[in-house]
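re: ur question from yesterday

yeah so i grabbed the chain u mentioned. its 316 aa long if i counted rite. heres the sequnce exactly as i have it in my notes:
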Amino acid sequence: MSTENANVVEIRGLVKDYGVFRAIDHLDLTIRQGEIFGLLGPNGSGKSTTIGCLLSLLKYSGGTIKVFGESMSPAAYDLKRRIGVVFQDMAVFDQLTVKDNIDYFCGLYVTDKTARKKYVEEAIDFVGLGDFIRKKPRQLSGGLKRRLNIACGIAHKPDLAILDEPTVAVDPQSRNNILEGIRQLNQAGSTIIYTSHYMEEVEELCTRIAIIDRGKLIAEGTSSELIGRIQADETVTAEGIQLTEDQVRQLEQMPIVLSAVYNGGILKLQLRGSGAGLMTILRYLEQERIRFGRIYSEKPTLNDVFLELTGKELRD
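ran it thru and got these structure tokens back, copy pasting raw so excuse formatting
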């Protein structure tokens, strides 16, 4: 792709039915060259189905999908060679070493042995696995396995990389290494589609974000644009708190309270207005002689956007 800001992915009116169940409902998405595009949604929202249709792994019921300006199909091998995929489930061979795994997957796209050797070495350096090239996957920690999975998916230097939950169940150090690697991959020229349940990652990493639910696009924009759409000005969270149903109802009926979620000894309140919200809640708790372990106030986040738009916590 030589045209700056060209569209790498264009999905128009995508429909995917499983019998009477509609998993994707006339979905429109555009992903531009050079973006790190966050594709977010609650479990069952249609993210994985959308990716499956995009890769022509699934047949869809209606709509069109173009990648690099060309129609995507199961036989569009020239397009697929330009795509790298890192699925949440590990896709490596336990019988092969780290280096041989990366070489195998790179060889699916790059037939020239000299070029492939260079690409494999660069992928090993990219994910920081130089000390582990002779190890088998079963000898690696969870974080190192994730890095290996990423290396196998991007060793051929794809123009489009699809990363599905690449940091799930890894330690903080490995997560930081993976996120830095994703930035470097993007800076080297790859457009990235990124799915995650970790909102802080998405806010930090993604240049633009789409939220889907029940197979429909419900919001799209930068992190700041999405946060600016919600009504709440402040979120107050109280931990280690025990409330009766009547007390929760009283909190919900306060003029400043937009929503109240109480679960497992944690109270989360979304408030309108600014400045005095926390003090108002503290006065109520003191008046009712309600004890709590910790209470704090935060500005709205992407997770709050999720809660307001879908009625669900993203981590659920």
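noticed a couple things. The radius of gyration is 23 Å. also The mean pLDDT is 91.
anyway ttyl
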